[in-house]
Amino acid sequence: xxxxxxxxxxxxxSLIRSIVENLAEDIHECEDGAEAFAAYIAHRPDFVLMDxxxxxADGITATRLIKAADAAAMIIIVTNYDDADLREAxxxxxxxxxxxxxxxxxxxxLLESFK
Length: 115
Prior knowledge:
It is a single chain. The protein is an alpha/beta fold. It has five helices and five strands; from the N terminus they run E-H-E-H-E-H-E-H-E-H. The protein has a five-stranded parallel β-sheet, sandwiched between helices. Helix 2 packs parallel to helix 3 (59-69). The radius of gyration is 12 Å and the shape is globular.
């Protein structure tokens, strides 16, 4: 499995990596939604683990861009925001999952379910 982790916080990227690294043979990272599209095109991951709140471009916008280029892209939102409107916006943008950072083991279980 190839993964792309998109989060503006290096500590959070590291934490996510530590939880999923033994599921993946290849993990790439970037720190903003503005970089996510180029990283997706360059690495063609099986899953993008996308934060919502980032400085330059948010994760919902980045999800829309990636899905417009590749309708088969699998993007899981990984966020602090337990908000029904954001959850709906993420799914409308094309995300296939929505996981709260406070429960990253759920992210691992979700990825394992796709194996």
